[in-house]
Amino acid sequence: MSLWQKSALGPGRVVKCQSCGEPVAAHWTGILAAIPAFLGGFVLMKSENLPLGIVAVIGGVIAMGVLHTFLVPLVRADA
């Protein structure tokens, strides 16, 4: 599974594993990986400096992708 495919997974999205063919999904704790993106949006709303806010959002989205890709485990989806 590519990094892009894994980062697009969530607890409600199930795909077949390319290795074993079984259905897999991201663990529910993957929802917590979105916190940096929300914090970036909060900085954008509260910042008086637009470029700083945009950088905060972009950094938050990148951090979310990295966390989801490398720290959130895949679990077997029992259908």
Structural class: mainly alpha
Radius of gyration: 15 Å
Q: Estimate percent helicity.
A: 40-55%
Low-confidence stretches: none
Number of helices: 3
Mean pLDDT: 88
Whole-number count of domains: 1
- Beta-strand share of residues: 5-15%
Shape: elongated
The number of E-state strands comes to 3
Element string (H = helix, E = strand): HEEHHE
What kind of sheet is the major sheet? 3 strands, antiparallel
The separation of the N and C termini measures 20 Å
Give the spatial strand order of the biggest sheet.
1-2-3
Write a brief caption for the model.
This protein has 79 residues and is mainly alpha-helical.
Tell me about this structure.
The chain is mainly alpha-helical and 79 residues long. It has one domain (3-76). 49% of the residues lie in helices and 11% in strands. It has helices at 3-7, 35-46, 50-71; strands at residues 15-16, 23-26, 74-76. The chain has a three-stranded antiparallel β-sheet with strand order 1-2-3, with no helix packed on it. The longest helix is centred in the C-terminal third of the chain and has 22 residues, at 50-71. It is elongated and about 50 Å long. The chain starts with a helix and ends with a strand. The model has no long low-confidence stretch (mean pLDDT 88).
What are the defining features of this structure?
single chain; 79 residues; mainly alpha; three-stranded antiparallel β-sheet; 11% strand; elongated
